[in-house]
Amino acid sequence: MSNRLVNMAAWVTAMAAILCLVTPAAAKLSTEYYAKSCPKVEEIVSDVVTTKQITTPTTAAGALRLFFHDCFVGGCDASVLVSSNSFNRAERDADDNISLPGDGFDAIIRAKTALELQCPGIVSCADILALATRNLVVMLGGPFYRVRLGRKDAVASSVASVQGNLPGANMTADQLISLFAKKKFTVQDLVVLSGAHTVGFSHCGEFARRIYGYKNGGHDPGLNPRFALALQKACANYQKDPTIAAFNDIMTPGKFDNMYFQNLLRGLGLLESDTVLVTDKRTKPLVELYAANQTAFFHDFARAMEKLSVFGVKTGRKGEVRRRCTEFNDLSV
Ligand SMILES: *[C@@H]1O[C@H](CO)[C@@H](O)[C@H](O)[C@H]1NC(C)=O
Ligand SMILES: *[C@@H]1O[C@H](CO)[C@@H](O)[C@H](O)[C@H]1NC(C)=O
Ligand SMILES: *[C@@H]1O[C@H](CO)[C@@H](O)[C@H](O)[C@H]1NC(C)=O
To answer: Over the stretch 15-25, which tens digit does the pLDDT of each residue have?
Structure first.
């Protein structure tokens, strides 16, 4: 009997070892990762980004966008933070970066600076970006979710890697669904993560086609006519000044809530990639659910963000802890 138990124990250990070998990197992350090496990491990141958000209210939306772009292009590895140099054109300078907002970058750089004073060389930029994004979502009224830590920073970042990996403002539902599916994200993940457009803004160039000269000089029929008119006025000078932008959620732009979904049902979706979510029969029921029930949106958003935040993470020797978030430790690459 006891012999069988021993055999059993050996078997369990062997299985555990095998499972460990095939376990994805994400399973190695833990909320306790810095418990000994940098116990104040959460507090420090929280202090820095809170201050930044109070002084610059566009920070939260900037960080969310940055985080999504980082994760969808080769995993959550802070590759998007690297600056281009004379040897390399980095991810953030890709054509589709649609001018990633500087306030998000700045919050991460400041948090890194504060952490390097407390525990030099310990906390990765990828972990800082993940934590900062979560904290900022909560600060705007959105849901809390767990962020496990231990990501390493990428040792490569290239413009070429962006190609075909990010949603475009004018993508169809089919294109969006297949882009997400390619990364094992579901239709529900697509709809619920699009809910991040409850904050932030988009430049007129991203939706100009919808409001000017859309088939016979009109506007996209998917847009509420008064909304289209207001956008035509607001964007009148966008070709001279490409920085002119409109809020993604015109009703409650500074609040993380389910208004984005309510807007979609009223023709107030800013981008084509927003509006297609109400015209496609696979996504429409989810838009209706989240528009009617903010609790359901928050619950599903939190789960999707947890999933996103471990997507393609690098652990162990697959990456490094960068000393500066904008450059690799080995400057010759
Ligand atoms: C991408 O973003 C960076 C940083 O905001 C900016 O300097 C660069 O001009 C952008 N690239 C393009 C092609 O828009
Ligand atoms: C989206 O816009 C780009 C250029 O602005 C264009 O090449 C592409 O065909 C458009 N895609 C769709 C689905 O309309
Ligand atoms: C809203 O969604 C939550 C979470 O899924 C659920 O528990 C609740 O019953 C829903 N409320 C209504 C009014 O349907």
So the answer is: 555 555 545 78
Question: CA–CA separation, 242 vs 245, rounded Å?
Answer: 8
pTM of the complete model = 0.89
Check pocket membership of 66 for ligand 1, CB cut-off 6 A. no
Taken in order of first residue, the domains within the chain and their CATH numbers are 23-166+309-318 (1.10.520.10), 173-177+179-303 (1.10.420.10)
pLDDT in tens, 294-328: 999 999 999 999 999 999 999 999 999 999 999 99
Q: Among residues 102, 154, 150, which one has the least CA distance to residue 330?
A: 154
Which amino acid residue places its CA nearest to atom 11 of ligand 1? 93
Q: How far is the CA of 189 from the centre of ligand 3 (A)?
A: 18
